[in-house]
Amino acid sequence: MGAPAEQDCLAYSVSLGGGRAEYSGAMVSRMPLRIPRLRRPTPSAILSPSAAHGARHPVTLRRTTRTINNEQTTTSFSLQSGHRGKPHKMKMRLYHGSQSETVEPQFGLGLDYHDFGKGFYLTSDPELAREWSVYRPKSNDGWVHAYDLDMDGLRALDFRDRGVFAWIAELMKHRDADESAAYRRRAPMFIEKYGVSDADKYDVQVGWRANASYFYIVKAFVRDEVDADCMEDLLKLGDFGLQYAVKTQKAYANLRPLPTLKQLVKFDAHHAAYENRDAAARERMRELIADPGFNRLERLFSDVIREDEP
Length: 310
Fold this sequence. Notes:
The protein contains nine helices and 15 strands.
């Protein structure tokens, strides 16, 4: 079994996190895996990390087929993460952008309607923290506060491992992506099927930040305007980075402020950068969503709720 050539990539749909978030078409060529060519449908199987050419964890193949060039071809597999939920032995330098010069992280504070609910939100990118501190129009200058987070003994829920559906389900627990009766009927079904039921038991949650652009994608998805196979690739646009949400008392105890690294952020110097980043990402998203070659509308929000049902 050899690695597929570039022209063979259309034969594969790659999903991360239990088959939840899928890649397809030429996007496969950017993955750090080499997918064996399978010209006939096969039962579920396991590829070892060595067979996956660099994957650190096994790759599970499940049997689904699609006709491409008059051939039946196995089209999906899922990458099962081996470090999901296990303690991380590392110290991370993180940053929090705020309008306040004085910030005191406290367990139990925060708002339920933030992406992952109550918690203290940070990023590993100081430039993003600067932009986030002054993202509101007509706001004042902001501040970036630096912290070291000792992950030793903490359990992290990383939505990149769980897949984009798990991330969307977590958003749905805290934010309404639509106001329609259909969405209100389907959202609990989606959360039950794809959500992480014990998410609140993790000390730290890691995932994309649902700013205006990213939430625009989620809204389009729940309205059946975006193919599920496009979602994770769309979330890579804009380079908005990841956010880390400190959730438990244990995690707050491991968070050490670094007051000597506090920075003043001038509104005029950084607000435009945030606006430009968001506008460019949203324009590119609109272009891709309108492209039938990219957004095939074959696997929609209403479809994934019913997948795997008898």
